[in-house]
């Protein structure tokens, strides 16, 4: 079984900074993306409609703060965004947003701008990769980084009123590759992922495969959305297509598609969990103008 490289921004020739840089104006920057005919709303996206929080969450201060957690003998860092509506009494969705190679959580927070889309309705984690990168090619490195994320999930769902049933991941470039690799090895339960300019998952040393030769993934079926620039020469369209094809197969989707807002996104039919692919004409290696709204709406539309 051949191994894929965790491509990304260190390959050179990037059209944007590794952690997102600017946004592309290519495509339709819809402010209310969602599946065709779907309002895109979910009662669960309103923190006041979620279950009661019985943790020590009332001590968590709203705003953005730098956090450190010790995992496997190492101190790992992340930026934590807590909405102004947080009162320690109701649970919130939990979103992880992963930076590209050479970036960090602070940089992605400035570039991705998903906080505005949540309208104070989610707790958001911007993790920092060791040496400004994510290891998705080696068994030890991937296990180390995945353990870091699992530890943060456990901490926030236990002590910060984050809802364990509404945990999501998104990422750009190498961060997108890492999302696909991580959810297949994670001990946490992920409700949906949205990856931007990235591929995967794939096998590495010690990976197991099923009788059909498919990578065995802890997230056996998972709502997944991919955004891919068709003019991207850093992460070529074939990489985004690999991620699409993996989750399409895992979710048992048909080959037929239907329109998904915003254009030119398409949703596959007959899936056990939704699979959406957005191929953006003319877009290079950058964050799509509609990246944040389409990601948030995809997350909150999952039942």
From TrEMBL:
Localization (cell): Secreted
GO terms (BP aspect): xylan catabolic process
Region ranges (Disordered): 1-60
UniProt keywords, alphabetically: Carbohydrate metabolism, Hydrolase, Polysaccharide degradation, Secreted, Signal, Xylan degradation
GO MF annotation, one: feruloyl esterase activity
Major site of localization recorded for this protein: secreted
Biased composition (Low complexity): 25-52
CC annotations in GO: extracellular region
Protein name: Putative secreted protein
Source species of the chain: Labilithrix luteola
Taxonomic classification: Bacteria, Pseudomonadati, Myxococcota, Polyangia, Polyangiales
């Amino acid at each position: 079984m051949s191994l894929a490289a965790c491509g990304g921004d260190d390959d050179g020739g990037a059209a944007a900074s590794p952690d997102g840089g600017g946004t592309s104006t290519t495509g339709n920057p819809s402010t209310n993306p969602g599946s065709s005919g779907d309002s895109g709303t979910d009662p669960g996206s309103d923190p006041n409609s979620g279950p009661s929080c019985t943790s020590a969450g009332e001590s968590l201060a709203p705003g953005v703060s730098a956090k450190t957690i010790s995992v496997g003998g190492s101190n790992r860092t992340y930026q934590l965004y807590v909405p102004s509506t947080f009162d320690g009494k109701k649970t919130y969705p939990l979103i992880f947003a992963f930076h590209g190679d050479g970036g960090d959580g602070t940089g992605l927070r400035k570039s991705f701008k998903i906080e505005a889309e949540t309208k104070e309705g989610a707790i958001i984690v911007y993790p920092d990769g060791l040496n400004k990168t994510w290891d998705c090619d080696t068994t030890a490195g991937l296990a180390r980084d995945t353990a870091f994320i699992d530890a943060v999930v456990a901490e926030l769902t236990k002590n910060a009123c984050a809802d364990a049933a509404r945990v999501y991941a998104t990422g750009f470039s190498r961060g997108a590759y890492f999302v696909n690799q991580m959810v297949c090895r994670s001990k946490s339960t992920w409700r949906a992922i949205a990856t931007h300019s990235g591929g995967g998952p794939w096998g590495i040393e010690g990976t197991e495969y099923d009788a059909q030769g498919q990578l065995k993934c802890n997230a056996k079926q998972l709502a997944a959305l991919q955004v891919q620039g068709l003019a991207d020469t850093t992460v070529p369209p074939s990489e985004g297509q690999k991620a699409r094809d993996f989750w399409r197969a895992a979710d048992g989707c048909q080959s037929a598609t239907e329109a998904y807002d915003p254009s030119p996104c398409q949703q596959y039919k007959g899936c056990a969990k939704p699979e959406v692919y957005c191929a953006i004409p003319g877009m290079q290696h950058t964050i799509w103008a509609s990246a944040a709204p389409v990601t948030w709406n995809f997350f909150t539309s999952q039942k």
